[in-house]
Write a structure and sequence with these properties.
Layout: H1 2-6, H2 12-20, H3 26-38, H4 42-53, H5 76-96, E1 108-111, H6 113-118, E2 130-133, H7 147-152, H8 161-171, H9 197-204, H10 208-214, H11 218-223, E3 236-239, E4 244-249, E5 255-263, E6 268-269, E7 275-276, H12 279-286, H13 290-306, H14 315-325, H15 332-340, H16 343-346
Antiparallel strand pairs: 1-2, 3-5, 4-5, 6-7
Helix pairs in contact: 13-15, 14-15
Length: about 350
């Protein structure tokens, strides 16, 4: 448990419960889990779990293309702030025991001075992150529209509805896409601005086999096309070849020139026929499936905590946990606590306290 929640060896208090033989009693186990979640060592859990689950370890994988996005050149402060925002948000979900739907939609974010500018919010002072209420109809809020998530699902030059949509469906909704056929090439967005990514994907999915697969995730990805490679809002794409020319000098003193190209079309239709026009409407559809999100969260925790995939024999246990947490809307800390109490984590059933047997 100490390795799971702190990436460290058991401390004296945990060892004392092991020595007393009462650690597996449900009340003791819950109390110790709560204590470890509040300990300083839990920062390692937050960092490592978000690295694994949300790919935050890849936050610096791709440098922003200075030709198309000169404003992000050498902006390490922004990248660090984006990663910190997501880690702080996840810790807040645990501490406040928020419903699992907060992964998709909240009326607040965590921001500092740089993130306030990035998200076009009222100015803030200082580098410290703080909880900030969002204006009505904000396109932000929740996890899936945070800049860190949108950066790790882009390549530094372009965004792809395929990659972003598949990522959301796998990491948040628990529906990983099947592997693409080896003979089908990937769709590369046209940075010249001659064709939109929607036009390219329409051509790509003329094959019924491709169309059936892409219908699982492309619509979700299209809803995220209003966010650029770093998660800032945009209504039109940028290109290097067509559109309205923009010139200037970046922070390093280099001249730049790019073009404002065609408009973003963020509408789509999910596989079940439900349609949406933008990210706000998509979020309203996704939050209607809280059990699906909670199941995926438990599965992600299981893999991280045990180092093994969810087995067939684990599925009834997970469904039982979901049944327990349903009335309270699948709250994040409740789900984690229930997993620690389960046979999946313990390898056995919790034991009754001495003297409690009838």
């Amino acid at each position: 448990m100490s390795h799971f929640l702190g990436n460290t060896c058991p401390d004296a208090e945990l060892k004392s419960h092991v020595a007393d033989g009462d650690l597996l009693q449900p009340t003791v186990l819950r109390s110790e889990t709560e204590r470890l979640l509040k300990a300083e060592s839990s920062e390692a859990f937050v960092n490592n779990f978000t690295d694994y689950w949300l790919s935050l370890k890849d936050i610096r994988r791709d440098e922003p293309d200075a030709r198309l996005y000169p404003e992000y050149r050498f902006d390490d402060y922004l990248i660090d702030s984006l990663a910190m925002e997501t880690r702080t948000f996840f810790r807040y979900l645990l501490e406040q025991n928020l419903p699992i739907t907060a992964l998709v939609q909240t009326d607040f974010i965590f921001a500092n001075d740089r993130l306030a500018r990035h998200y076009d919010l009222p100015p803030l002072e200082g580098s410290k992150l703080r909880r900030v209420a969002l204006p009505a109809n904000s396109p932000y809020g929740g996890l899936i529209t945070q800049g860190a998530i949108l950066k790790v699902t882009a390549n530094g030059t372009t965004t792809s509805p395929v990659i972003r949509g598949a990522w959301i469906m796998e990491r948040i909704m628990g529906e990983p896409p099947p592997p693409p056929p080896p003979s089908v090439p990937a769709v590369e967005p046209d940075i010249r601005g001659a064709k939109t990514i929607r036009d390219q994907l329409a051509q790509h999915t003329r094959d019924p086999v491709c169309a059936n697969c892409h219908a699982r995730f492309d619509p979700v990805g299209f809803a995220l096309e209003n966010y650029d490679i770093m998660g800032a809002w945009r209504n039109r794409y940028r290109s290097l070849g067509q559109g309205e020319k923009v010139t200037g000098i970046d922070r390093a003193g280099h001249d730049y020139a790019y073009f404002i190209a065609g408009p973003v079309d963020a509408g789509g239709q999910l596989r079940d026929g439900r349609a949406f026009q933008n990210i706000r409407e998509l979020k309203q559809l996704l939050v209607q499936n809280p059990r699906q999100m909670a199941r995926n969260f438990l599965q992600q925790l299981t893999v991280y905590a045990t180092g093994t995939p969810v087995r067939f024999s684990d599925r009834p246990v997970i469904e039982s946990i979901l049944d327990q947490c349903e009335a309270e809307r699948y709250r994040v800390r409740d789900l984690l606590l229930a997993l620690v109490q389960s046979r999946i984590f313990l390898g056995t059933e919790p034991v009754a306290a001495k003297g409690s047997e009838s």
